[in-house]
Design a protein that fits this description.
two-stranded antiparallel sheet; about 30% strand; Amphi-Trp domain-containing protein
């Protein structure tokens, strides 16, 4: 869903395998320095570069689980708040 120029938003139901493919594509895009997102309503290209800020939020409450990954960056790489080394364990 394209909300306004310079912003792309999409929501859909996906299975684990589809989400894994999407995350793999994001990984490749970050590595190459170009991320492209699109659907029937619009598209956007981002160019990740330099230091990036990563925020991970995971919750499991009232029978619902949620994982939010947020990656932000700017051309200005001034010191940013850091929560220390992230630890992630898979199944």
């Amino acid at each position: 869903m394209m909300e306004r120029k310079g912003r792309f938003r999409h929501q859909s139901l996906q299975d684990r395998k589809s989400i894994q493919k999407l995350l793999d594509a994001v990984k490749r895009g970050i590595s190459k320095g170009e991320l492209q997102f699109g659907d029937d309503t619009g598209d956007i290209t981002l160019e990740p570069n330099g230091l990036m800020n990563l925020r991970v939020t995971a919750t499991n409450e009232d029978g619902q689980s949620r994982l939010d990954l947020r990656i932000t960056w700017t051309n200005d790489t001034q010191d940013k708040k850091d929560s220390g080394k992230l630890k992630v364990k898979g199944g």
